[in-house]
Amino acid sequence: MRSVILLIAVGALLAVAALKAEDHATAVFTEQQAADGRAAYAKHCASCHLPDLSGNAEIPPLAGTTFIDTWRSRTTKDLRDYMSAAMPYGAPSLEADSYTVITAYVLRVNGALTGEEKLTASTAVPIDEVIPKR
Q1: C-alpha 38: how far from its chain's center?
Q2: Does residue 88 belong to any structural domain of this protein?
Q3: What is the CATH number of the domain that holds 29?
């Protein structure tokens, strides 16, 4: 009987460890960067991508399943570089740091966790590692 209870306990611990490993996410930006990004997004991006980042029929969403599925296999650098090269549409014109903090905000809205590390233009972490699995 004791061995059965021990096996059940070990199995439960292994299951919990596996769930925690799946939920693990790498924090690559600070809370302050996400807050600054929210303000920059409201000023420079919300008119096209909408305040809730949902986009519309012509403008892609920056939050939710479609966004995550599109960017999951790419890196934070890929996302930031794309924004800095293509946004705002027709004439990229923001300061370099604005693109960095907007990237932090978009990742935060999609469930990424904040931490002590600051996101930089050269931070290249797979977005799949930044946004916890759902």
Answers
A1: 13
A2: yes
A3: 1.10.760.10
* All residues at 6 or more sequence positions from 52 whose CB lies less than 8 Å from its CB, including other chains: 63
Q: Give domain status of residue 15, yes or no.
A: no
Instruction: List the beta bridge partners of residue 126.
Output: 75
Full-model pTM: 0.82
For the chain, first and last CA: distance in Å?
A: 37
- Tell me the mean pLDDT per 10 residues along the chain, length 134: 50 44 78 98 96 95 96 97 93 92 98 97 97 82
In sequence order, the 6+-apart residues with CB closer than 8 A to the CB of 5 are none
At residue 75, the 3 state secondary structure works out as strand
Q: Is residue 5 part of a domain?
A: no
Residue 6 belongs to some domain of the structure: no
Q: How many CB atoms lie within 10 A of CB 36?
A: 19
Angle in degrees, CA 63, 65, 71, rounded to 5: 75
DSSP state of 119: P
| 53 dihedral zone (left: phi>0; alpha: psi -120 to 50; beta) | left
Number of domains in the chain: 1
Q: Which domain holds residue 35?
A: 25-130
